[in-house]
Amino acid sequence: MRVALSFLLTVFFAVPIFSNHGNPDLAKKTFEAFYNKDFPKSRNLAFQYLKDSESIDTSDKVLKIFFITEPDLNHLDLILDRIYISNQKKNFHFYKLVYILLEKSTVAENHKIATKWGEIFVNEAKNSKRYSRGLYLYSLTLFQRNESQRAETVLLNCKSTEIVMFSPKLELNRILSLTDEKVKIKQYRRYLRNNYKANYSDFVLASLIQSYKKVGKVNKATNLKRKFERDFASSIFLEKVRNL
């Protein structure tokens, strides 16, 4: 986290931290709070700054701070909606924000927001370097909603060179559709034995931990949580696993 924060601060210092559309003093206070790691204050100031701005520039660093620090998905959805319906050209900055919201809504299992922006990402973000990763995130939501056919269609939008890494999704689809937790546990374990190095095994391991909790096997769940933190320290599902 410290490395990531240092990188972000380096980027923010390298370019102007606010656009001409908002309050410069409020933007400065937002950045200072973020630099001092007072994230609740920085996100509150950023939200006020964005609400007061006549228009929102997607390259505005205050906007990026807000998307990094804001836990309320509805607030993020509100701001992104405002940008989306504007006449502003949608560039890579915009689709990076869509990706961040898609990531957060997937982890929070907010299917409504994940589906809304997932469809936009699938149809409009084809030139984004995060495109395949975004499709993967959205497909997780679709599998969880038992929309397996749509999920498989989404994954087929990946570049031909990247489709192979998603092929085990067909098996994952079958597992996610099961309702018996004990059967799920057996299938999750078998799946991880065969696909542990796949880039979505963090999601499967998190699901296995959750299933163990549901059937009352707390010790197994606790041991796997330690394994998850060791093997998937940068996973987007880490916080969810810690809270199980």
Written account of the structure:
Helices cover 69% and strands 0% of the residues. The chain contains 14 helices and no strands. The protein has helices spanning 2-14, 24-35, 39-52, 61-69, 73-84, 92-107, 111-124, 131-144, 148-155, 169-176, 181-195, 201-214, 218-231, 238-242. Helix 2 (24-35) runs antiparallel to helix 3 (39-52), helix 6 runs parallel beside helix 8 and helix 10 (169-176) runs antiparallel to helix 11. The longest helix has 16 residues, at 92-107. Residues 1-20 have low confidence and may be disordered.
> Separation of termini?
21 Å
What string, H for helix and E for strand, traces the elements in order?
HHHHHHHHHHHHHH
As residue ranges, the low-confidence spans are 1-20
Class from secondary-structure proportions? mainly alpha
Number of helices: 14
Report the sheet-strand fraction.
Answer: under 5%
- Rounded mean pLDDT is 81
Shape: globular
Radius of gyration: 20 Å
Give the SSE map.
Blueprint: H1 2-14, H2 24-35, H3 39-52, H4 61-69, H5 73-84, H6 92-107, H7 111-124, H8 131-144, H9 148-155, H10 169-176, H11 181-195, H12 201-214, H13 218-231, H14 238-242
Helix pairs in contact: 2-3, 3-4, 5-6, 6-7, 6-8, 7-8, 8-9, 10-11, 11-12, 12-13
List the defining traits of the structure above.
single chain; 244 residues; mainly alpha; 69% helix
